[in-house]
Amino acid sequence: MLVLVIGDLHIPFRAHDLPAKFKKLLVPGKIQQIICTGNVCNTDYLHYLRTIAGDVHLVKGEYDDNPHFPSSLILNHAPLRIGVLHGHQVVPAGDTQSLAAVARAMDVDILLTGHTHRFEAFELEGRFFVNPGSATGAWHPTWPLRDPASVAALAEKAATKASQADASGADAKKSDKNATEEASTKKNKTDDAAKAKPTDATAAEKDGASAKQADGANEDDEELHVKEAPAPIPSFALLDIQGAVVVTYVYQLIDGDVKVEKIEYRKNLDSNALLQRGTAGAPAVGAVGGAYGQQASR
User: Fold this and answer.
1) Does some domain include residue 102?
2) Nearest one of 129, 139, 155 to 250, comparing CA atoms
């Protein structure tokens, strides 16, 4: 069974439409089910999704104003249980341990979330976690303004410079101490030489101030070289569910081209665990109420 996982469209507030190259791929007749992780923000776009596949399930994002959208869902694809949650309820957002806690509470094998606008797929504690990202590449309020790698490089350079400055300061103090000891052993100093010392010190202070100004200018120049963070990458995921095996295909629009990555998850079938979970005879789809894992009857 081929399942489209899509979310965080934010149409028309942050994006006007899906990328054209995505729309060419998402054609009717190929996908059997659609799971939307929320923030569609436009009821008309739900009609568009239903033209791709009639079986559409979605949860409410923080920007969806339809009160009838459930906050979470549990869908059964025996022997798999799939939980769906937008993700703004998870604190910190996208935190792996927090997501793992939600998956345990919902008692699901696969947890689908959104909210961060960044694709992720990973396995933890025998469960599979997928965030399809934003299908439109919509911006996110918590998205970094500056490129983290560039900021880290600048911080490392600043730390190196500070370390070098400390070492230079220590060497300078040692040199001053040696010079003082050497001067104290000398005799027959003239008054002119004694008067010249303040002048030399003043010149040294001026040189030091000039050097500090130059260093400050260099730091300002380095600050200007911090790069802006790249915008969110438009993405969605297709789950090919075959029994206990799920092959995830992630589609990302990078530099105008659609890139596809393949990730496989296989559930460890433990008969005792299956009996404890009581999956036999469970309804196909259920809306979760206030507490995670409470599956309502249809």
Assistant:
1) yes
2) 129
